[in-house]
Amino acid sequence: MSHVRDMSLAESGRMKIRWVQDFMPALVAIRARFEREKPFAGKKITISIHMEAKTAFLALCLAAGGAEVHATGCNPLSTQDDVAAGLASMGVETYAMHGVNAAEYRGLLVEALSCCPDLIIDDGGDLLDLLSGDYAHLGKNLLGGAEETTTGIHRLHARARAGVLPFPMMNVNDAKCKHYYDNKYGTGQSVWDAVMHTTNLLVAGKTVVVAGYGYCGRGVAMRAKGMGANVIVTEIDPICALQAAMEGFEVKTVESALAEGNIYVTCTGNCDIITLEHMEKMRDQAIVCNIGHFDNEIQMARLEKSAAVKLNIKPQVDKFTFPDGHSIFILAEGRLVNLGCATGHPSFVMSNSFTNQCLAQMELWEKHLEVGVYRLPKHLDEEVARLHLDNLGVELTHLTPKQAAYIGVPEEGPYKAEHYRY
Ligand code: NAD
Ligand code: ADE
User: Alpha-carbon distance 109 to 117, whole Å?
Assistant: First the structure.
């Protein structure tokens, strides 16, 4: 039975879920196919993704394909209680509540798994963690799962390397139609949506420090520049550092940027990027936030225990004043700011990511894969892009037979050789 905060919020949640569908063209097309073909009839699917309206629509698409869907969140701050109630009222077993503590969060995930699913969708790897440990027995029916985000992929590969991956997993993050758009343009927009809406501060003329120039960092830096900020990038990878420099950004260490930075955004998927010592030396009124999956990019635990005095200004905005009198503002408790202080990526972007998720579930179900980590076949990725072209008025050029022969590809594609991610 669903476990949500307040069922009286259901109508507000249903309105949000219906509204996002208008902007998710490929997912709407997939739902129509699922309604016709019922590929998941008799199957149970557990999903753990940020519980907001786009995710709810993904759950409904899988249900339209005949699945019994059990849905939970993947971060206590990103759950929207009205969406959780709305989804529960639409026939999906939903276990998600905003603001729960770590033990309650884990409890909700266990509830979502207790149906012993055939397939899972994970965002960050918390379901896989449970199914690899104390709750392995709940994975007895599993054909496999699909992972949504970069940090979850790191955890998947670590398990595969150690030989302890329990079942096949699809790496959806590395599909081009996921990280090219979601990580870059999605994060690039939703981070600034969150920071501006929450702080109401001017970005133009500020110095923004972007830690990590991977896919997310590129989007965040690009949009900050577009709004008139001076952008400083920090990187550990020489190739990414050079790319940032050629894009016109200063590349420095966090330590060298401290005298200038007004807004810090961590985008690394790594720990201890902004340390207590950094925060002690920041400029007065610096804003500090994170978009990485876990809340360990900023040393929140050390900050909370430090001599800095904490004042909660409003939900998701905490002011910390240090003994020397300077203050900094932490957004969303150091958790991913675009989901803690805003509603995540735009629907059109998530239409790409979640269509890939649906196709990954089909692959797992149809192919009965061996244990391992898999990427989506390129033709499916191309199909996801194709399904979004009309909506943006894109006219695709088709190869002539002579051109196809000249560059050595079939007329119908694939048009590009595989290339490096970076
Ligand atoms: P990525 O691997 O493309 O980029 C991360 C970059 O950080 C890399 O270039 C790496 O070299 C750099 N880096 C690592 N350690 C560093 C350090 N100590 N200092 C400076 N740079 C460092 O990953 P990505 O796809 O950009 O994802 C980044 C994080 O964001 C992950 O945790 C991912 O799960 C998460 N994510 C969040 C959202 C969201 O909506 N908030 C969306 C997508 C991904
Ligand atoms: N909305 C739902 N899932 C999301 C994700 N992984 N990133 C951003 N917004 C989202």
Answer: 12
Alpha-carbon distance 342 to 386, whole Å?
29
Q: What is the pLDDT of residues 325-377, one digit of tens each?
A: 999 999 999 999 999 999 999 999 999 999 999 999 999 999 999 999 999 98
- Say if pTM beats, i.e. exceeds, 0.90: yes
> Rounded to an integer, what distance in angstroms lies between the CA atom of residue 278 and that of residue 233?
16
Q: Would you say 75 and 104 are in contact if contact means Cβ atoms under 8 Å apart?
A: no
SS3 307: coil
In the beta sheet, which residues pair with residue 47? 71, 121
Name the DSSP class of 74.
Answer: S
Ligand 1 atom 23, closest CA: 214
Q: What is the DSSP string of 173-201?
A: TTSHHHIIIIIIIIHHHHHHHHHHHHH--
Q: What is the DSSP string of 222-246?
A: HHHHHTT-EEEEE-S-HHHHHHHHH
292 near 332, Cβ under 8 Å? no
**What are the φ/ψ torsions at residue 151 (nearest 5 degrees)?**
-60, -40
Give the distance (Å) from ligand 1 centre to CA of residue 44.
Answer: 32
pLDDT digits (tens, 9 = 90+) for 307-339: 999 999 999 999 999 999 999 999 999 999 999
Which secondary structure element, helix H or strand E, spans residue 4, and what is its range? strand 3-4
Question: 122 CB under 6 A from ligand 2?
Answer: no
Query: What is the residue type of 374?
Result: Y
One-letter identity of residue 146: A
Question: Measuring CA to CA, which residue among 126, 105, 53 is closest to residue 84?
Answer: 53
